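Response to reviewer comment R2.3. The reviewers asked that we include at least one raw input/output pair. We reproduce the pair for Glycerate kinase here without editing.
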Amino acid sequence: MRILVACDKFKGSLTAAEVGAALERGLTAARPDVVVERLPVADGGDGTLLAALEAGFTRVPVTVTGPTGEPVDTAYARRGDLAVVEMADASGLARLPDGPEPLNASCTGTGELMAAAVDAGCTSVVLGVGGSSSTDGGVGLAIGLGARVLDAGGRPIPLGGIGLELAVELDLAPLRERLEGVTVRVASDVDNPLCGPRGAAAVYGPQKGATPGDVVRLDAALSRWADLVADAVGRDLRDAPGAGAAGGTGFAAMALLDADLRPGIETMLELADFETRVAGADLVVTGEGSLDAQSLHGKAPVGVASAAARHAVPVVAVCGVSSLSEQELALAGISGVWALFDLEPDPARSMAEAARLLEIVGAELARSL
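Raw output as returned:
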């Protein structure tokens, strides 16, 4: 029997690769005759870089500007002329040295990382935008790629969403010159617009530490930025689905980089050649830390199950905890779930001992085949 283990990370506990390794140990201990192939996956958020490296890409290290100005050592993944850039690794919440900075955090480092890939000869870039720390409308992305955004005195605006309050001039010439002949795909599952009650500030700002007052200021600043961009490019994309992704980075990517937005897990499975890997498998094991309502909207396990269904390969899932009903799981194409909660109901202990528990789950799964 051939089993393909295609799991996402267990956030705060194990990487996708560590989840797969633990399951393989359990599966093969209980059934030495089983052949296990591991394929770590991601949906565009944190873990995207590691998933690309596991899929055969090469790591290219780069030092960029962190969300609040400090240097950050990060990398992009490269295969041929294709680069994979993970926003979370360059400009994510984990890169904030002193906690949330809802007004001042910037995604400039992500733009610098893309610039490094393009300057090194990459002509196609996949940008995973989950896990961002900023609500700056993607102005940092544009600045990192060479754009100049100036205030009324001709000075560069301060970085972060609050700097947009001062923006009056946008010079895209250096950015356009750098990106000539380059295609950009954004891996994102968000369909929010840039502004308004469903916009980047209102919906995601509080998750990044924004107070109600901060949300009002950021939303107004994003609207000002959208006006400036519309004047520069001749089209207004603030209401486009996905414009609100990653604090408005989706808006900047579409409006300034002519980027296409695609579901994150579909993009990453394509890069990992999942269709070839799943062909001939007898079972796919997928999973993530929590299987819940969000999982049904483009997260990795459901994306994996959908892709496996095209090859008529059954899918089971492992997770820390599941709140989905049997009907919801069945509709998603998942025929069974093994949750660590059933072995260790204490969340702290379950996260601390996730590798050991996953080995047990792998063994139980193997014996059930």
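Residues 44 and 128 are 4 Å apart (CA to CA). Residues 2-41+272-368 form a domain with the Rossmann fold fold (CATH 3.40.50.10350). Further pairs are available on request from the corresponding author.
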